[in-house]
Amino acid sequence: MSGKAPEAMPAAARVRLLPVLGLLLALALLCALPFVLSSYRTFQFTMALVYAIVLLGLNILTGYNGQISLGHGAFYAVGAYVAAILMDRYGVPYWATIPASGLVCLVFGYLFGLPALRLQGHYLALATFALAVAMPQLLKYKGIEAWTGGVQGIVILKPDPPAGLPFTQDQWLYLLTLAIATLMFALAWNLVHSRVGRALMAIRDHPVAAEAMGVNSAWFKSAAFGISAFYTGIAGALGAIVIQFVAPDSFTAVLSINFLVGVVIGGLASISGAIWGALFIQFVPNFADHISKAAPWAIYGIFLIAFAYVMPAGVAGFLRLMWTRARARWVRSL
Amino acid sequence: MEAFLHQVLSGLATGGIYASLALALVMIYQSTHHINFAQGEMAMFSTYLAWTMIAAGVSWWLAFVVTVLASFVIGMLIERFLIRPVEHAPVLTVVIVFIGLLVILNSVAGWIYSYTIKSFPSPFPAEPVLGGLMSAHELGAIGVTLVVLVLLYVFFQFTPLGLAMRATAQNPVSSRLVGIRVGWMLALGWGLAAAIGAVAGMMIAPVVYLDPNMMSGVLLYAFAAALLGGIDSPGGAVIGGFIVGVLENVMGAFVIGTELKLTIALILIISVLLVRPSGLFGRVIVSRV
Question: What CATH number corresponds to the domain at position A60?
């Protein structure tokens, strides 16, 4: 800084201020959304926020730590079922089931991460894929039917907003999800930009060098699995409450592939990418459904391959590139 | 006892089909070190091609031959156009492309043929054989699997092209130096894998019926079989396939019930990867850092 001309400083500071202002503006717009949209659209945006939390968690594991998971639908299912069982069988209030689901998934993910330590690349993808494919059968298992309700699943009641707040149920759920999502985004941002985040990325980029620098690779990798599952579990609980229903066949391998699509389209190793990815997997199928029942998936497949070839950093990476260029041009023009 | 024998024999029949698909996986793994997540979907698509021809009045075996040849060409085209650009890309990119391929094949099949379940005829007579222990289709499926295996063995052991493919799998750089066209060998490997997958698809379709999602379970068993036998060992994949087939049937019938059959594959995959990642017959790879 000391070597630079003094008049360059305020311009640079102004440029740095812009993202913060943009973020606040975006948050304000998001808060206003349920009051201008129909309740069905509000529901859709709530689900987009739920997916954004999942993608955030998956990105911590796959994008930042380089461990491929094709099985996050299974963690999502566990989160959803924990919430549904707690509410339906034990009468726990809905808000308390959200952290509970997160914690159960944290433990489950950490435990699954321990054997996964020995697996890399394709093998990890394979093991997690197997988990995703087997999940619906496990949920239908007769021995746990007393809790899970078997094939029929569990129906949950839609929670009312706290007394005294002038919101409809849908608006309240949206705002609750938005608050939780904002919190989760802030946590993820801090995690990624901390010592832990740097360790995760070092393990992804060069495991041997990371070990040599004193990073406990085994611990960080299973912790990444746990944290990722924690995010997914919270989202699963929210998803169950929003949809008011859980059943084994909503958690097939298709769901896990959905999440992978979201992460790739949004942008690997990018926090904001979770939003773009979530919007994509929530809204593109809706539009494509009008063409054919199979169309959304054809589009997914084409987008997946196209992004892998030409835009590996996803929408977020593309936007970042455009932003950097625009800023460089602007700073130069000042 | 007879019920047990019956389960073992029909396990061998499905095991043969898993063995074929596992063999296709091994084929691609050996040449490129990629695990092809779209293998099941490729087989499903081939089976639909065969169904179209049979529905149009073509005889079963002619449709079989045409399908195998067409699958071979499609497999090569997929390698040339989709896989080649990401040959040296990170694993994640390759997995994403495979999943993309899986999704596209699945949805295109659904788009063209709809998601309703279709029955697929068997070329073998309907009456049971071996004193009622097996259906003729099961015996036929085992026979077809064995024929495929013998053909592949002969191809890889006794033909110059087979030798060139094995050389490419072992050491691509030296192979290129002695004049083998490595790129085409990889494409050939994909073509063969697609053709073997097509055979597996046409053999399993009369049992599980034809629909775009018919292969998701089968693929999982094939993964388990390939890993159990050793992902780089073709012979191991075949033995693994038969073991998984019998295990699935016997466990499903007598121990844990049919609802949890897929879990057997999950447990098998994870325990093999943990206890003996190289499988029963695979090479143990020691990597230098």
Answer: 1.10.3470
Q: Do A70 and B95 touch (CB under 8 A)?
A: yes
Given a cut of 50, whether residue B286 has pLDDT beyond it is: yes
Asked whether residue A278 is domain-assigned, the answer is yes
Mean pLDDT of chain A: 87
Across the interface, which of A118, A137, A257 has its CB nearest the CB of B263?
Answer: A137
Identify all chain A residues contacting B211, using CB atoms and an 8 Å cutoff: none
In a domain? residue A152: yes
pTM of the model: 0.87
Would you state the pLDDT for residue A242? Answer: 93
Query: Residue A304: which of B103, B223, B277 has the nearest Cβ?
Result: B103
Mutate to test the interface with B, among A69, A119, A129 (most CBs of B within 10 A): A129
Contact A121 B115 (CB under 8 A): no
The answer to whether B103 contacts A253, with C-beta atoms less than 8 Å apart, is no
Q: Which domain holds residue A259?
A: 38-156+165-333
Point out the residue among B33, B102, B110 whose CB comes nearest to the CB of A293: B110
Rg of chain B, C-alpha, whole Å: 19
Question: In chain A, how many domains are there?
Answer: 1
φ, ψ (nearest 5 deg) of residue B134: -135, 150
Could you tell me the domains of chain B? 2-124+131-275 (1.10.3470)
Instruction: Determine, yes or no, domain membership for A27.
Output: no
Q: How far apart are the first and last CA of chain B?
A: 54
Whole-number pLDDT of residue B44: 94
Of A62, A133, A301, the CB nearest to B92: A62
pLDDT digits (tens, 9 = 90+) for B148-179: 888 988 998 899 998 998 888 888 889 999 99
Distance from the Cα of A239 to chain B's closest Cα (Å) equals 24
Give chain A's largest Cα–Cα span.
73
Angle at B71 between CA B64 and CA A70, to 5 degrees: 120
The string of pLDDT tens digits covering residues A85-100 is: 999 889 899 999 999 9
Q: B residues 127-166 near A, CB within 8 Å?
A: none
Closest CA to B49 of B62, B38, B39, B36: B62
All residues at 6 or more sequence positions from A27 whose CB lies less than 8 Å from its CB, including other chains: A182
Backbone angles phi, psi at B218, to 5 degrees: -60, -40
ipTM over 0.90: no
